[in-house]
Amino acid sequence: MPCWYYEKKELRNTPSIQDGIDYETECRYRKEGARFIIDTGSKMDLGYNTMATGVVYFHRFYMFYSFKQFPRYVTACCCLFLAGKVEETPKKCKDIIKTAKTLLTEQKFMTFGEDPKEEVMTLERILLQTIKFDLQVEHPYSYLLKYAKCLKGDKPKLHKMVQMAWTFVNDSLCTTLSLQWEPEIIAVALMYLAGKLSKFEVVDWNGRLPKHLRWWDMFVEDVTMDLLEDICHQVLDLYSQANNAKPPDSPPMTPTNHANRENIVVPTTIDSASNTPNAGTPSKLPKIETSTIQPSNGCPSVDISAVDGTKPLEIPTHYPPYPTNFAPAPAQYATAVFPPTNISVPPPSVNAMNHIVSAMRLGPTPPIRPQPPTPSTAPQFQPYGYPTNATYFPPGNPAPPPPPTNPPRAYYPSQP
User: Where is the Cyclin-like domain (predicted)?
Assistant: First the structure.
């Protein structure tokens, strides 16, 4: 299976950056796409796992393609459409497009082209090959609840900490943390951050052993404080960016001619993925006096009823809509650059052994099946020559004599 975790230097050398988009603008595009997926999914009553899976697909896709090559709102709809089928909460493509149209301005919706449904369906095949058909994605939500049930302490404070950590997990979807660290590490780091802000100190936990110095050592080994603080800083940066001034408009998209569109090739290998995670260069966490924090995506705190395992946690099934005073990012495209709808895309080829598929090129479709062979007039087998007469011995050779007739042996004496 492919590795989806990257070094920080690789995240600063993406196809978008190579295409002339600076790092800050790319981060804003990723944030806008993630929030658009959450907004659309919330309006369609999709679960949080479905929306989170769509966001992860979105981040992985743009590790191979530039934002100038594929408009982010078309890609976001495609990712949500695919995630709905993977998480068994499918929605019709036309319904997703209809909902997206209510959330976008007319100029942004122009990026969908003349036939939005065909644009999304065409991009779905490219998306599947780009993510190597690796559809199953794990999220920090399940690990957050699992770890919280093992902690001991004041129940109200523990509930408050879990609520805050859940909000941090929601907001982390707007960052590239899912491309840097495993969900277990993200869950531990955001629980650590929520514990600091809610003033909940973990003193004891279930299953504690003498070798466990901290509570997360029981679940994840070799996690340093510098690593946790680096993850916490990336989430806290979202709240400082939410209070900044209105971001500039998105630059106009560079039109792509028809010849270049036909040369789009889906990568068959992941060259920039790293097998070794990166701890980065973290710094110390600032001291925050407040005990509560407002989520950057407008989601209210989750009402957690219990974490002792006797009663299931009551978690929201979808994200609430963002408040009206939330600072939008009115990124606008001048012209649509998505490939025209009349390009026929061949069905993707799947290798069941390692999920690596061959490159797909937009162009004439090859024949799906080879032509059947021309039937031959020659018989398929030669008949066996059986004798025509009843005797199986050649002429001139007499048949063997019959066996001698011996009298039967008397096994028992004759009875008088």
Answer: 35-129, 142-233
Q: Would you say residue 51 lies in a domain?
A: yes
Residue 320 lies in a domain: no
Let me know: does 58 contact 30? Beta carbons within 8 Å.
Answer: yes
- Rounded to 5°, the CA angle 282-222-1 comes to 95
Length of the chain: 416
Contacts of residue 47, Cβ cutoff 8 Å, sequence gap at least 6? 87, 89, 317, 318
Q: Which two tokens stand for residue 13?
A: 């050398």
Output the domain CATH number for residue 58.
1.10.472.10
| Structure tokens given for 229 | 């603080």
Contact 97, 120 (CB under 8 A): yes
Q: Into how many domains does the chain fold?
A: 1
Residues 63 and 4: their CA atoms lie apart, in Å, by 10
Residues in contact with 224: Cβ distance below 8 Å, sequence separation at least 6, in sequence order: 279
* C-alpha to C-alpha distance for 198 and 194, rounded to whole angstroms: 6
Interatomic CA distance for residues 304 and 301, integer angstroms: 9
Burial-class residue 371 by CB neighbours within 10 Å (0-12, 13-18, 19+): exposed
In a 3-state reduction of DSSP, which class is residue 411? coil
- Distance between CA atoms of 125 and 355, rounded to whole angstroms? 14
Give residue 113's region: left, alpha or beta (phi > 0; psi -120 to 50): left
- Note down the domain range covering 175: 8-262
Q: Give tens-digit pLDDT for 65-89.
A: 999 999 999 999 999 999 999 999 9
Q: Report which of 216, 241, 78 is spatially closest to residue 140, judged by C-alpha positions.
A: 216
Q: Helices 23-43 & 93-103, crossing angle to 10 degrees?
A: 120
- Cβ burial of 88 (10 Å; 0-12, 13-18, 19+) is exposed
Among the residue ranges 27-36, 60-69, 164-173, 255-264, the one predicted with the least confidence is 255-264
Domain annotation covers residue 339: no
CA 129 – CA 361 distance, rounded (Å): 11
For residue 209, the Cα-to-chain-centroid distance in whole angstroms is 35
- Quick one: residue 233, left, alpha or beta (phi over 0 = left, psi -120 to 50 = alpha)? alpha
Q: pTM value?
A: 0.63
**Would you give the DSSP letter of residue 151?**
E
399 found inside a domain: no
pLDDT score of 212 = 85
Cα 263 to Cα 402: distance, rounded to the nearest angstrom: 87
